[in-house]
Amino acid sequence: MTVAPILEIRKLTKRFGGVTAVDGVDFTLADGELRCLIGPNGAGKSTFFNCLSGQLAPTSGAVHLDGHDISGWPSHAIARLGVGIKTQVPSVFDGLEVRENVWLAARRRYNAREAKERCDELLTRLNIQSLAAHMVGELAHGQRQLVEIGMVIASDPRLILLDEPAAGMSRDEVARLAALISEIARERSLIVVDHDMRFIRMIAETVTVFHQGRVLIEGEVDKVLADAMVKDVYLGKQVV
Ligand SMILES: Nc1ncnc2c1ncn2[C@@H]1O[C@H](COP(=O)(O)OP(=O)(O)OP(=O)(O)O)[C@@H](O)[C@H]1O
Ligand SMILES: [Mg+2]
Predict the structure, then answer these.
(1) Which of these, 52, 149, 190, 228, is most buried using a 10 Å CB contact count?
(2) What is the pTM of this model?
(3) Would you say residue 74 lies in a domain?
């Protein structure tokens, strides 16, 4: 059975002056799919995400979400359609408690009482109840990443974009994050960008590789990670 795509992207291009960060990308994500996106530094992964979430307006090309052409829409309108993003740059309130951060994120969709329930549920699911009253600014990096992921899923987006969620996490934290993402993926569509290939192997089925703003290769995780071209673009860096 083929599932209708939640996301259909045609010839997406984003230029910054003379730099073409995303260069004519075609990309399709099935409803309910978990896709991993990898590629060396500067490949255009974050720019691609930011064009999908409306943080950046594409230079040209089309982004269709659930049949709506959302190219060039502002980020709040795209968020309202059910797209949640964890950007590479942290977007938490350091001076607020963990639960306040997650509650505020849930409040974007739910009323105050529902947001509290959603917040309690998420802190339990992320196993960070004991941190609820801690200021986010005092947390270790891996814990902050978990809070951010909680904030993204708090408003129940249909499509979740996570930009380097495993960055700076310990081995244990990465394994826990992988389990959490696999669980989320049962009920949502997800695109995950990361450089940690152990993590990618834990969660991925299909992987898309970006290189110089283009899709270099797309396919089953083991095949893609064993591909000579992919090893080549990482220039000897440990891919597998
Ligand atoms: N706001 C910007 N202004 C100018 N150039 C930019 C801007 N954002 C990104 N770029 C350039 O676009 C290209 C793609 O950058 P991008 O951040 O999308 O790559 P990435 O794949 O996310 O890399 P990384 O793995 O290091 O996060 C790079 O050449 C980068 O310098
Ligand atoms: Mg990036």
Answers:
(1) 52
(2) 0.94
(3) yes
